[in-house]
Design a protein that fits this description.
alpha/beta, Collagenase (Catalytic Domain), eight-stranded mixed beta sheet, 12 helices, 13 strands, 11% strand, elongated, binds zinc ion
């Protein structure tokens, strides 16, 4: 049976993950205003190559190009590279993540060397390549510690088992949100200047190294801008079954709601004109609608009228959508905030530093706002004060009842007069 190729990365959105991301986003907004967390984060990364067959190979040149591309994408937004026919009319705002990756065991800024890439033996067929845990256990059994202190990137050929889909599905990569393990299809490794050479047509626009950029985003707590179960194009965004996109939207507030991914978006799509005779920025059209053969552009969860009046268009050219590698150009401000906040709080997981200082819980301590981070403390304080007040009132009332009432001045005078 022919294997299907999709950019699915096995990432599942849960309520808990969404809540955590909203929290990260809120923190990110606070950190952005705090001078101590400005500057470039340094994150340690360790690369592994785990081939499935003897004829699979990955050159150091490709890994080196991938490392350079990862840094290029995470340090500055490349959105200016997108062809701009008219006005930049998208509501979303791109920003520089300012995250630098350096080889594990070296100092920030040091170059990647051939010896830094761990070359593992052939992966036995008993290892499930769609599960992070089983793959990680096997790598640990080979004598490599996948613990805290680096982002571990395993280049192999991941696939989802038949239990997930009707057939075995090859995937470009996957990552567990908030974890420090990303599993990447080795055929995607490279950069625009050094694309991975492959004879597979489905990889031709996914061979410039942006799969790792996407999966590393998941490791740093980023979500997809669309729900796991895609909403039919004709179904309203507020209708039944669409709750998930509303919740997803809360984690990327500078992105318009998306019913589905922009899977299939190609570089050529970015130059298509918007229909309707209005010279708006063509970067806002819904590429997925074009991909399924509908000629009229469709604007995510907005009607065409709302699109032209409100100018809130879809922004499919960021790393967390499912566009092809040439269309992935940057991170949105909310995504940058989320990742930087995650690093401030959990940076030690990735061996991260900022201005030479190790990140983690200690760095966060002074910044925590007790009212925000520990609302239960204030609930207890308010409760104790309320109970104390009630007891004081009760005591006063009882005391007043016990004491005989003091005679008023008129009564005292009357008493004196009667004597
Ligand atoms: Zn993903």
């Amino acid at each position: 049976m022919e294997k299907q190729m999709v950019r699915r990365c096995g990432y599942a959105t849960s309520d808990k993950a969404l809540r955590a991301t909203v929290e990260r986003l809120r923190e990110g907004q606070r950190y952005r205003e705090d001078g101590r967390f400005q500057g470039t984060f340094q994150v340690a990364v360790r690369y592994y190559f785990a081939p499935l067959a003897a004829n699979q190979s990955l050159s150091f040149h490709q890994v080196e190009a991938q490392h350079a591309e990862l840094n290029r994408c995470y340090q500055a937004s490349l959105v200016k590279e997108i062809p701009n026919n008219s006005v930049y009319d998208c509501a979303s705002r791109f920003a520089d993540a300012q995250i630098q990756f350096f080889p594990w065991g070296k100092a920030p800024g040091e170059a990647l060397a051939e010896a830094d890439v761990v070359r593992l033996p052939l992966v036995p067929s008993t290892v499930n390549l769609g599960q992070a845990n089983t793959l990680a256990s096997w790598i640990q059994a080979q004598g490599y510690d996948l613990g805290h202190g680096a982002l571990h990137v395993v280049f192999t050929e991941p696939s989802l088992p038949r239990s997930h889909y009707s057939q075995s599905v090859k995937i470009l990569g996957f990552a567990v949100p908030g974890s420090n393990l990303a599993v990447i299809n080795f055929k995607t490794v490279g950069s625009p200047s050094v694309p991975n050479l492959t004879d597979l047509p489905e990889f031709q626009e996914a061979n410039q190294g942006h799969t790792l950029v996407h999966e590393a985003g998941h490791c740093l707590m980023l979500q997809h801008p669309f729900p796991d179960v895609e909403i039919p194009l004709r179904q309203p965004c507020t209708g039944p079954g669409s709750e998930e996109i509303q919740r997803t939207h809360s984690t990327v507030p500078d992105l318009p709601l998306q019913k589905r991914s922009n899977l299939g978006l190609k570089a050529a799509d970015l130059t298509l004109a918007v229909q309707g005779g209005v010279a708006k920025d063509n970067r806002g059209k819904d590429a997925s609608r074009v991909a399924v053969g509908l000629s009229v552009p469709y604007y995510g969860c907005l009607t065409q009228t709302q699109h032209f009046l409100g100018h809130t268009l879809e922004c499919p050219w960021h790393y967390m959508d499912y566009g092809s590698d040439p269309t992935m150009k940057g991170f949105l401000q909310s995504q940058v905030d989320t990742m930087r906040a995650h690093l401030v709080k959990h940076g030690s997981v990735y061996g991260a530093t900022l201005g030479g200082q190790t990140l983690g819980r200690l760095a966060l301590r002074n910044l925590q706002d007790p009212a925000h981070d520990h609302p239960w403390i204030w609930a207890i304080v308010v409760g104790v004060l309320f109970l104390g007040g009630m007891l004081w009132v009760l005591w006063k009332v009882r005391q007043a009842r016990r004491q005989p009432e003091k005679p008023t001045r008129e009564e005292q005078r009357a008493q004196r007069d009667s004597v």
